[in-house]
Amino acid sequence: MTEHSQIIETVKTVFLDQIPFNKLLRLQIESLDYDGARVRIDMRPELVGNFIQGILHGGVISAMLDVTGGLTAFTSLLKKMSHLSNQEKLERLAKFGTIDMRVDFLRPGRGKYFVATGTVLRTGNKVAVTRMELLNDENVLIAVGTGTYVVV
After folding, report:
1. pTM of the predicted protein model
2. Dihedral sign of CA atoms 80, 84, 86, 88 in order
3. How far apart (Å, rounded) are the C-alpha atoms in residues 46 and 79?
4. Alpha-carbon gap, residue 132 to 147, rounded angstroms
């Protein structure tokens, strides 16, 4: 396993297994690399926000977009930190956090599963900005977001 793939696997483990809320949501990272992230969640009754319509809760949508944006921002930071050891990179992860996030809910969250993708808009020395989209299993755009993350 290369050093790059080792650090990516460690980041996946941190986000999925060491953050209790992400574990509770049962998020799945479908892909993660320097260019972005792809996160999936399967619909289940506990995630319904409007019981009459049976649609995905807005908080779940926001959480998915935030996790996806965070993963995207952090992997873009990893690319800039190629000169650091994996330990130093992980120490930066401990200081990493969301500063601001905007979510636009475009359609009701109907679907069997949902996939969020993230792309980097800019990664600076202190802040990274990402753009996220959430689509359902029929490839219908449900929500979009923009996230700002501290990367010091």
Report:
1. 0.91
2. negative
3. 37
4. 8
